[in-house]
Amino acid sequence: MQEYEDAPPPADALAESLRGFGYSAETAIADIIDNSITARARNVFVNVELAAGTPFISILDDGEGMSEKTLREAMKLGSQSPLIPRAEADLGRFGLGLKTASFSQARSLTVASKRKGGEVAIRRWDLDYLADSKGEWRLLTSAPEDAGPHIERLEKQESGTLVLWNKLDRVRPRHSAAVGGAKSHLLMEQLEQHLSMVFHRYLEGGQPKLKLHVNAARIRPWDPFLSSHPACRPSPEETVGTANARIRVKGFVLPNKDMIEDEKAWNQAGGSEGWVTSQGFYIYRNDRLLVAGGWLGLGRPRPWVRDETHKLARIRVDLPNSEDAAWQIDVKKSDASPPENLRARLTDLALAIRGEARSVFVHRGEYGKSPKVANLARPWKSVRIGGQSAYRIDTIHPVASYILSSLDDDDRSIAAFFKLLENTVPVEKIWIDTVEQGELPATPFSGETREQIRALARDLLASLMRGRGLSEDEARAQLRRMAPFDQHSEIIDEI
Question: Cα(169)–Cα(188) distance, rounded to whole angstroms?
Fold first, then answer.
C-alpha cells in the first residue's frame, strides 16, 4: 500500500490563479450560455450594467434549473471528469467553465437556480471572502444584498438559472484604449458580434432553438458562410474519421466584393476581425462554434498563413462531443488541433477550397456574370524565372501576334516596348496596395465609358480581320474568347 498525505490547494490561491485563463468578456459570457443550452433553455437574457453604482452582469435562462444538491456540485471546481461520456447535447466537459469564466471577469459569482415546482437554491463564491477563509473552500449559501431584483426575476419563472457577476474588476473590451461610455459601447458591440457568431446555428430559422437577448435587444445570427447568398459556392459535404467518430466537413467559397450589394454588407460579411482573419476552418461541436477561422497548422509544403488571396475560403467542421480529447479542445473552447490521422485528408479538402477561392479572388466579378470561356486568350502569362514568378506578354495572343508580325525587320520599337513592360510590372506596388492598404485593383474597364469600350472592341475587331484574315463572324467569335471581352459579349453584339 502506497503511503500518502492529503495536499489540497489553498482556496484563495487557486481561485486567484484560475482568473488567468485568458477569457475575454464575450467568451466568458458565451461559456455561461453553454450551460443554459445544456439545460434545454429556450430563452437567455444577458444584462450588462457597467455605469451603475454597483456594476453587474447577469445571465438568466428558462432552462430546467438545478436542485440544491446539483447546484452545490456544479459550484465545485472540476465538478465532472472530462473522461466521463456525456449526453450528445452537452456543451461542457471539464466542470470548470462556470467558475473560470466567471472568475476571469468578476470577484463575486452568484448562481441561483430553480427546478419546476421547487424553491430557488443559491450558492456564491466571493474571492474577497475566500482571502480571509484561511485556505478553506467556503461556499456561501446566500446572495449579495443587492441581488434581490435579479432573484425576483427567477422566482417569477417556472424554472431556470441565474448567473450573477458582481465586483467586476476585469470586464473590458478587447484591443481598445477607449474609456468611459465609449468603452461600454465597444464592449457591448463586441459581445453582440461574438454571440451572434458563436450561437448562429441556434439562432437561425423561423423557429430557432434559442432566443438570445442582450440588454433586451434580440441577437440575430451571423452566418460565417453567407450560405444564403446566390453567389456563395458550397462544396459537397464529406464525412471523415472512423465509424465511432464521424466528422462532417463542408467547404464554402464566399462571394467576392463585386457580388455583394454594398460596402456595409461586405464589411459585415467579413466578420468582426475582417476578411483576412476570418478565412479558414470553423470548428463546431453540437452546432456551437468553437474556433472561428485559421488553418489549424495545416498546409503543404509548409503551414498556411492567412493571406489576402485566400480570404474567401471558409470550411465548416462538425465534431461530436466525444472528440474533444482527440481534437485537443481547451477549457475556453477556443482552440483545436486535428488528430494526426485526419490531417492529410483535411489538407486535401482545404487545398481544393483554397484553390477555388483564390481563383474567384483573382478573377473577381467574372464569376456569376457569364459562363467561363474555354481557351480564354489573355494578354499576360505567368512564368517561372530562376525559381521566381514573372509576368510576360503572351506573344501568341491574336492581337500581340498580329502587331509583332506586321513590324518591319528594322523596326523593333514595339517589341522593345513589350520587353520594357514585361520587366517593369509593378508587382511590389500591387501587392502593397492589395495586402497592406486593403485595396483591390480596379476591375477591367473600370472608369471607362460604354462608348470607350465599344471603340476598343471595334479597333480590335478590325485588327483581327485585317491582320489574321478572318471574316467578321470569325473575328467576333475570336474577340469573345479574349479577356476581358468574354464578360462583355453584349458590347460585341453592339458593334
Answer: 17
**Of 103-112, 166-175, 186-195, 213-222, which range is least confident?**
166-175
Q: What one-character DSSP code corresponds to residue 433?
A: I
Cα separation, 15 vs 198, in Å, equals 27
pLDDT value of position 181 = 65
Report d(CA 165, CA 484) in Å as an integer: 60
Residue 183 has a pLDDT of 76
For residue 120, the cross-strand partners are 114
Task: State pLDDT tens for residues 76-99.
Answer: 987 554 434 445 555 544 358 899
Residues near 367 by beta carbon (within 8 Å), at least 6 away in sequence: 231, 256, 259, 360
Maximum C-alpha span of the chain: 102
Centre a 10 Å sphere on the Cβ of residue 495 and count the other Cβ atoms it contains: 16
d(CA 276, CA 130): 45
Distance CA 483, CA 193 (A): 41
Distances (CA, A) of 352 to 122, 357, 377, 434: 53, 9, 25, 23
pTM given for the model: 0.75
Q: Is 305 left (phi over 0), alpha (psi -120 to 50) or beta?
A: beta
- 165/350 Cα distance (integer angstroms): 42
Buried b / exposed e over 96-132, threshold 16 CB at 10 Å, is: bbbbbbbbbbbbbbbbbbbbeeeebbbbbbbbebbee
Q: Do the strands 43-49 and 211-214 form a parallel or antiparallel pair, or are they unpaired?
A: parallel
Contact 441, 426 (CB under 8 A): no
What Cα–Cα distance (Å) separates residue 201 from each residue in 193, 197, 267, 321? Answer: 14, 8, 21, 16
Place of cell 459569482: 109
Burial of residue 220, with CB atoms counted within 10 A of its CB: 0-12 exposed, 13-18 middle, 19 or more buried: exposed
Give pLDDT, residue 259: 87
Residues forming a β-bridge with 77: none
Question: What is residue 486's DSSP assignment?
Answer: G
Q: Name beta bridge partners: 125.
A: 109
How far out from the chain centre does Cα 206 lie?
A: 23
- Give the burial class of 416: count Cβ atoms within 10 A of its Cβ; 0-12 exposed, 13-18 middle, 19 or more buried: exposed
Give the tens place of pLDDT for each residue, 136-159. Answer: 999 999 999 999 999 999 999 999
Rg for the chain, CA atoms, rounded? 30
Strand segments, DSSP code E, in 107-255 are 108-114, 120-126, 160-166, 211-214, 217-218, 233-234, 238-242, 245-253
Secondary structure (DSSP) of 85-116? ---TT----SS-HHHHHHHTT-SEEEEEEE-T
